[in-house]
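User: I'm curious whether this sequence folds into something compact or stays loose and floppy. Could you predict its structure so I can see for myself?
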Amino acid sequence: MTYRFAMRVALLAAVVAGTLTTVPRQIAQQRICNDPARIDLAFIIDRSDSIGLLGQTYNAQIDGVIAALRDPSVIPRDGSVAVAVATFAGDTCLAVPLTEIASTDTADAVISQVERLRCMPDSPVAAQCPTCPFGDTSYTSAILNTNNHLNQNRRQGARRVLLISSDGSPDDPDLAQRTAVQARNAATTLQIPFDLSFIIVGLDTESQQFQAAKATLDQIAQPQPADALPGATLAIDAGPCNAPGASGLDADCARQAIEFAELTRSVIRSDVTPLLLVVDSEADTTPGAPVTNQSLSLRQAIELANCNNGSTRIIFTDSLRGQTITLSQPLPPIMAQEVIIDACPEGDVTSLVTIDGGQIEQEADGVLIQSSRSAVRCLRVINFKRAGVAVESGSRNTPSVFNLVEQNVFEDNEVAGALVLDPKGSDGDQAASVNVGNTISRNTISGSATLIDLGGDGPTANDENDDDQGPNRLLNFPGELLVTASDEDDTVTISGEAAPSARVEIFAATATSIDSESDRLVIGGVSFLAEAQADSEGVFSISGVSQSPTGVYTATVTDREGNTSELLFETEDTSPAQPVAAITASIDFGEVALGTTSEPFRS
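Assistant: Here's the prediction. I'll summarize afterward.
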């Protein structure tokens, strides 16, 4: 399981566990919408002597800031967040002045500046800021100088966040604590919300050294107490990356950089109150209809989730299981981050809530996601003139990334069951690889022109080396499947090749036909059977897979970033597959006769 996918699992575990707070109905009635908060964020990176003793810890901090800037679900490109970057030891050096991130180009420019802070063998001695760990550890200098810079460049109405990453060994803890209190008091006088939080790096979180460091930083974090955001002490657990002599290419360093970005995101979004909304009506209310004490529709729930700026879980009462919500017009798109529509919070997928778009005359989707880190689970979505669920954003500066479409049933949606589109550029073509990391998993799909469509242009064939660009990076599906029937039971073994370390989902083809023009197999429906894990070379194999009712099997690939491919389909170079022991006659699917005992595909 990849780290980013693990973060999704953790999010959905919170959904299932019910850890969010139910929104009081009287608050829901008020419909007071929260605009995305403006935040002035300063990354303050420890480059002192003690950090230098912890392997690649300094560079891991730099890479963590870069990871945060690269991920638009952490640092949006809408101008809501401005970023400054400083490093400190006995002194403090401002490497990046406060810069409003209002476009992808601006984010890329800041990333370029931060990349120059890495400590490398050929790092220039006369760089603007020292690029390798050396010297004392003065938190007082770090807080005072960075806060002064934000004061001089503050944006109207912005919340101020100082995020210090360090091993928690300041030379001046008492003075640093007084400086932090003074900074917060001054900000409060100016009516500026103030947050000073820490990320402890390089230490084993089970060690006494860590406990001592946390105790020290808890006294400095603001506001007090430091037991929850805003104003908290967070941590990244140590690993091989922090050992003396570690290489910056170590996989553990990449893990720590991603975790740094995730913690940054938790700090940025700490002012969004999580909500739990329970849909208890199958009626479709009119857009903007006030919420009453009697019922809540799915449309109202999505409106409230957007109004709350996301961080909302939407579930359904048991009385709606097996019922149909018939829409008269499209639902509002999900515009805010972390909106989870979950129709099976207890894991029961036997009786689903249905959303029917058959009465909507215009092209529409069952659920349209125009945000990031959202999820749609366990809905039955039918009769829409475009897709069951679509992921699409308006521009490359507001991408829709790292969403999850899982365990749904999509039936008779005209264009696709699941659809991912990149925004169109000035020339009318889709921009390259903007909406990425969108996972489409374990869905049952039938009755669409294309079951999973990346780009809205029908099935997309694999390309050599998988270096083409587009939604979900147009990730290649498996080039071939080898399916062998078991001699002992009614199962099959399926093997093949995919992207290294990817997850491969195996599907039964539930409906097939032969195209009259190309004489090729067309898969009209699929249901999930099993999941395999590819090794570092991309090779996978799984046994004990149930038989397909048609004898035909297909698959998707989900890579380490979370991108899911389209389903394997027949082209000149790729073929769905059948068990070699279950076919009485040779059926030609391109270059491989599936009635033979041909060798597994090798690229």
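Summary: The chain has ten helices and 27 strands. The domain at 476-603 is CATH 2.60.40.10 (Immunoglobulin-like).
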